[in-house]
Fold this protein.
Amino acid sequence: MNNRENLYERTLMIKPDKTPLNAGLWLLSLLLICLASFPAFAENEYLLGGGDTVNITVYDQPDLSTEARISQDDGAITYPLLGNVTIAGLTPEAAGKKIAGLLKAKGILKFPEVTLSVKDYVSQTIPVMGQVNRPG
């Protein structure tokens, strides 16, 4: 009995050192959070402009989901049932909210869920002068 109790007590007292494992998991989690948030941050800071092509998706409404190019002239897109909607100068998130608000205000949908993403970034280009490795 004494040996069994002694073995049991020693087994309970041995605790594996989990510090390296915990630190590794913490660093991995932090890295994944940073990487996952970067593209979303970059797109939400981008201001739409003439020439950009956007994808507009309305949840559960495939007829209202479309792809549109923003006009160079007035910064507007032509959207089904709404006509011309000016979205230049807005972030993709703000443009999606504007379209959702118009769909609701005109009584087309009660609770529209609109997602707008940029397919082609054209309006904000950076000119490069001089020699470049790969022109284009």
Observations:
- The first strand starts at residue 53 and ends at 58.
- The chain has a mean pLDDT of 81.
- The first helix runs from residue 2 to 13.
- The beta strands are 53-58, 66-69, 76-79, 83-86, 114-120.
